[in-house]
Amino acid sequence: MQSYIITRGSPAISWGHNVDLSYNPKLFKDDDEVNYKLASNHLNEHLEYYGNTLVVNLIEKEKHYQAPIGQKWNTSVDKISNETKTNNSNILDNLWFDFHRECSKKKGGWKQL
Hints:
The protein is of the alpha+beta class. The chain has helices at residues 32-50, 67-86, 99-102, and strands spanning 15-17, 27-29, 53-57, 92-96.
C-alpha cells in the first residue's frame, strides 16, 4: 500500500523585510548555516514522521523579490538531501518548479500541468 500526503507552508529559513509601501521590499536573510540548521530540524522531523519525501519549491526563480528566499531554501534542501542519501535513511528529494513561469499564458497556461 502506498499513499501521498501533502503538507504545505513557508520555507523553514530565517528572512524578513522592512515594512514599507514598495512593491519589491528589500529582503534580509540570515547566513547559510543558520538557514541550514532551521531547514534541517524541520525536514528531519518530517522525514521521521512521514518517511521518504519530495519537497516541491513553488517560489518564482526570477524577476521577483522572493527569488533569494527560494535560492536559500533550495541550497539547504539540496544539502540535506545529499546527507540523507549518504546515510541510507529516508530519502529527501527536491524539485524547484517555477509555477508562474511554467504555467504562464505564453506557455499555454494550465495545459502545461
